[in-house]
Amino acid sequence: MKNIRIALVDDQQLFREGIASIIELQPEFELLLEAENGQDFLLALEHADILPDIALVDMEMPVMDGIELNNQIQRLYPQIKVIILSMYTKERLMAKMIHDGASGYLAKNCNRQELILALQTTYKTGFYMNMQVLKAMQHTSLQTHALKNDNGVVIEISPREREVLQYICQEHTNGEIAEKLFINIRTVDGHRNNLLTKTGCRNTAGLVLFAIKHHIFEVIS
Q: CATH fold of 142-213, please?
């Protein structure tokens, strides 16, 4: 039964057809929407009865590019997870897109297996970051000792919240974290929500960026 609804936004028809063929071969995936640019995609969402779970969004598009579309999705449809597709792999650009709410960033030359893994992992945990993106986030992070949110306000994170955050960075679900810490899943959900509130992060991917920036989670190559 298909249960992961996917949208594809890219102005290159041949590329869209290639990605669509990969998606349609996976029994758990459903290609719900396609669009040539961000503006067309937002119009399609306005008339959609069902929203996609994940949007694969090209960075470079006419009319409305992936950067602006991601911002609009975060504002209007925050429940949709965005995975950016791009030919560009500059570290600051990758880190910026995660900071702006994207749940993942894939190079357009990635292989079929990584695309499938990225979609599955994002649906399961709320984000997907390969080593290239994790390294980019680490290299562009600010060297700071005090924990500060995006507004520069110093915050405190409890030892338990720190444990939960570390497990989040390791791509564990709330249920898996509950089992590892021997606590109720609702308690884990509460810790996750507290972390989002304290840090000012938009989503789980933002929490990972925060953890790397403040050396709560170290990337090991």
A: Arc Repressor Mutant, subunit A (1.10.10)
